[in-house]
Design goal:
globular, alpha+beta, UCP028431, Glycoamylase-like domain-containing protein, 5-stranded antiparallel beta sheet, Glycoamylase-like_cons_dom, 18 helices
Length: 556
């Protein structure tokens, strides 16, 4: 149908459709597990320009979340647990967040600079000296990459199911380079931090994982070789390609970014009244932003769209909140101030009857609502909200306060918010983790490092842009962004200006852009005209699909 419309409609028809669509703001029905997005979207208030003052609660969240990293990290080797208090193994991604946390502690006066230098040096030296090789046991690294999970004491690969992870190595390296830029004093130990950080980054052989050039594989197993799936957009792996392109020793070519963004159109669309690059779980909209300030800088794709990745993440936060308000699956307590889907702990892998239907619940899993890869079992995570603070403070601040006021008695403890909770789950069955609170539902029992990290860093970025400003001084980050084609904003030399508007197009490029806009407009108009049936939960377990994020794999 759309092909015939495209052939017969002219510019006037296109404008009419665009005007019509702008008025209806209908969401697109999509799902891999449940068709959760077919309910009408809910209008949300526009972004407020003024920076909002943070209530005192946020200072308490910051301090407690910092203490998670400071208290639970092995002070003898710098390894940070994947989770606590169960604490079975270390996560290299958690270490990346911990290396970022220590300077935040210094700046807030929670520790002194010497303490931070001591802990950081211990960490970097341990990773520098960690045994490396292709053997399946007794090693912690290979080709400059590190295993996703390490033994908390030895640093060796934790078990045979653990992969040599490209994206988790990237998360570690973001923390390593952050340390390199923060410790800038002319003092022997800080100089050593900078030197070892450089050694670790230079050692990573990104090209080794390019089995399908120019893309980068998700990882490698000594038993079976390279993971067949590559990192393609859009998700948290933006930072991976920025790091890989900037490498002074093993760089990937700039066409890696071109191919990475080539799949963006598969996930660009309108969802819950917002038009953006969709990725269901919020961590995909947060992780790269922890260290990179994407405000005002654009690659070719975003330049054509007229926004930046920061604005894209803001729209993702609004879409998640609108989804929770619409609440198509009728979960308990979803609403204006109760939302937040990401990868998190959950109660159990089980099928249970909920409101007369069989619903699937999971333990650790990626959760999200969007154009693709949708799953929602009623489990919400505070990190999905607080990690979005810089994007949309006007909706994040009241939600954070409400979560503390309404659920804090059992959700807020020594290290801030526990990982997640599910007000709809009250089934008396054995649990994978967490506990049931009478009349309140399920609550996680652990803190997870990769969920704690965005909470702490994004509060710091909202207060004074601390993490962003430190990373802007790192030449590797700038080089990677520039190689990817980013321009504008803080990347421009002082006194230079670059337009953030789309560049002049040839006739063929204009025709292609018009055809794409027409197709998108027709799609949205058709959705507005075709009422979708109310969603029903699908009790069948979904077929195995491409893993979207090794950094968020189920915990064993």
């Amino acid at each position: 149908m759309f092909d015939s419309l495209r052939r017969n409609w002219g510019a006037a028809s296109l404008m009419a459709v665009l005007v019509f669509v702008a008025g209806c703001k209908q969401s697109e029905p999509t799902s891999q597990t449940y068709p959760v997005s077919s309910a009408p979207p809910v209008q949300v208030e526009p972004l407020k320009a003024a920076k909002l003052e943070l209530p005192p609660l946020f200072a308490d969240i910051e301090k407690r979340t910092f203490q998670f990293f400071w208290d639970t990290t092995n002070e003898n080797n710098g390894l940070t647990p994947d989770r606590y208090p169960s604490r079975p193994f270390a996560s290299i991604a958690s270490v990346g967040f911990a290396l970022t946390a220590y300077p935040i502690g210094v700046e807030n006066g929670w520790i002194n600079r010497n303490q931070a230098v001591d802990r950081t040096l211990v960490t970097l030296k341990f990773f520098r000296d960690l045994q490396s090789g292709p053997q399946d046991t007794g090693k912690g690294a290979y080709q400059g990459f590190y295993y996703h999970f390490l033994d908390m004491d030895t640093g060796h690969r934790y078990q045979s199911w653990v992969e040599l992870s490209s994206v988790d190595t990237a998360l570690l390296m973001m923390g390593v380079l952050f340390a390199q830029s923060y410790y800038d004093r002319d003092e022997p130990r800080e100089k050593q931090i900078r030197e070892i950080a450089d050694q670790l980054y230079r050692k990573v052989d990104w090209t080794w994982l390019q089995q399908n050039k120019p893309l980068i594989s998700m990882g490698w197993f000594p038993e079976s070789g390279f993971i067949k799936h590559d990192w393609t957009g859009y998700n948290e792996a933006m930072m991976l390609y920025v790091l890989a392109m900037a490498s002074p020793t093993h760089p990937v070519d700039a066409d890696a970014w071109t191919v990475w963004t080539r799949t963006y159109n598969d996930v660009w669309g309108v969802y819950q009244g917002e038009e953006f690059l969709a990725f269901g779980p919020m961590f995909g909209h947060q992780y790269s932003h922890v260290w990179i300030d994407f405000r005002g800088i654009q690659d070719d794709y975003m330049r054509e769209r007229g926004i930046d990745y920061f604005e894209n993440s803001r729209r993702a936060a609004y879409a998640q909140r609108a989804y929770a308000i619409a609440n198509p699956m009728k979960w308990e307590d979803y609403g204006h101030e109760t939302w937040g889907l990401t990868a998190s702990d959950g109660p159990q892998q089980t099928l249970q009857e909920y409101r007369g239907e069989q619903r699937q619940f999971r333990h650790y899993s990626a959760r999200g609502a969007g154009l693709r890869d949708t799953f929602d079992d009623g489990t919400l995570a505070p990190t999905a909200v607080i990690g979005s603070l810089p994007f949309a403070p006007e909706i994040v601040i009241p939600t954070t306060v409400a979560l503390h006021d309404r659920y804090g008695e059992y959700l807020y403890s020594s290290y801030g918010f526990l990982d997640s909770f599910n007000p709809s789950f009250g089934y008396d069955i054995p649990l994978k983790t967490g506990r049931l609170v009478p009349d309140k539902g399920w609550v996680a029992s652990d803190y997870i490092g990769i969920d704690q990290g965005p909470i702490l860093a994004m509060i710091a970025n909202y207060r004074n842009e601390f993490v962003w400003n430190v990373m802007k001084r790192n030449p590797y980050i700038r080089a990677g962004l520039e190689k990817a084609g980013f321009k504008g904003g803080w990347l421009q030399p002082q006194g230079d200006t670059v337009s953030t508007q789309p560049l002049p197009q040839t006739k063929s490029e204009k025709d292609a852009a018009n055809a794409r806009a027409l197709g998108e407009a027709e799609s949205r108009a058709a959705q507005a005209n075709d009422a979708q049936p109310a969603p029903k939960a699908n009790a069948e377990t979904p077929k195995p699909s491409k893993p979207s994020a090794p950094s968020k794999q189920p915990q064993q």
